[in-house]
Amino acid sequence: MGYQLTYAEMKRLFSEITQAYDVWAPVVKKGEGCFSDTDVIRYEKISSLDEVSWEKKSDYSFKEALLAINETLFYFTEDKVTIPAEPQKELLIFLRSCDLHGIRRLDQIYLKNGFEDFYYARVRRRAKFILMGCSESCQTGFCVSMGTNQSDNYDAYIRMEEKAVFIDTKDEALKQLFSVGKETDVEPDFVTENHEKVTLPKKLSPAVFQSAIWEEYGERCIACGRCNFVCPTCTCFTTQDIFYRDNKKVGERRRVWASCQVDGYSDIAGGHGFRQKKAERVRFKVMHKICDYEKRFGYHMCVGCGRCDAVCPEYISYSNIIHRLAKEEEENEK
Length: 334
Hints:
Blueprint: E1 2-5, H1 7-20, E2 21-29, E3 40-45, E4 70-76, E5 81-82, E6 90-95, H2 97-111, H3 118-124, E7 127-132, H4 143-146, E8 156-160, E9 165-169, H5 172-178, E10 182-184, H6 212-220, H7 226-230, E11 237-244, E12 247-257, H8 278-297, H9 307-311, H10 318-333
Parallel strand pairs: 2-6, 6-7, 7-8
Antiparallel strand pairs: 1-9, 1-10, 2-3, 4-5, 4-12, 8-9, 11-12
C-alpha cells in the first residue's frame, strides 16, 4: 500500500525532509559536459524535487554520494592525528534499479571483503535509498540481461506524474512522513526489455587471456579512466599526503578515486609496473567485472547500467566485448 500526494503536499513534505536529510539526486548541469556546449547529469545535494532529472539516466552514478571523489581520511601534525567528524544528517539518495543493485557490490567490497572500511561504513549506515522508476529503457543500458532491472530493497519509491506524486514506502520513518497522503496501490515502473542485449559467457577457458580482442581494444583505449569513474561498482582508489605550505610538518591524507586503466596505477616500489599495456588493462577490467568477481562472491560485478559505453571517447563498447567473448566461447566449444 502506498500514498498519493498533491504537488503542494509533496513540496511541503520535501521541505521538512531536507531539514533532516542531505538529499542527493541526479541533476542536469548545464554546459558542464565533457565537450563544448554539452550538459552532464551527475549527483549533487538538492533542495527541491524540481532539480531532479527524472527522465534521463545520470551520466555519473550515485557513488559520489557515499564515496567522495576526494575524501580526507585524517589530519596530522607532528604528534597528533585527527579524524574528520562524521556527517550529522542522514542521507536520502535517489537512484534507479541498476544503481540500487550497485549498492550491494559496494557493500561487498567495503564492508564484507575481509574488513569493514571505517569511512564508508559510517556514511553507509546513515543512507536510505529512494527508487526512481524507469518507464522505458535507456539507450546503452542492459540491466535486463544482468538481472538488475528490478529491485525491492528500496526505502521508498517515488513517481512524479502530471497532477500527482505517488509514493511507496518501506522505511517506517518515511512512512510516517508520507502517510498524510491518500492511500493507494503503488507499483514501481521497471523496464522489461532493453535496446541493448548482452549474452554473458558461461565458462571462459584460459585461452581467453590470449584473445586478439584485448589488443584490438587496447590500441583504441587512451587510458583516460572515464569508464571507471562513471561506473557504480568500481572501487579503486589511491591515497595522497598533502603538506600545508605554512607548516610542512602538518597536513592531511586523502583518499582519491583512481582507475585501473590509467598510466601508473599498477606501479609499485622499485619501479616495476603491472599491466603496462592498455590491452592488459582492458582485459583486467572486463574479466574482473564478469568473471573474477563472480568466482569470489557468486554474482557479477557489472549491473548493466551502460554508462561506460556512453562515456568512452573512443567508442569502446564494453557490452560488445562481452558479446564477442561469448561468441568466441561458443565457437571454441564446437
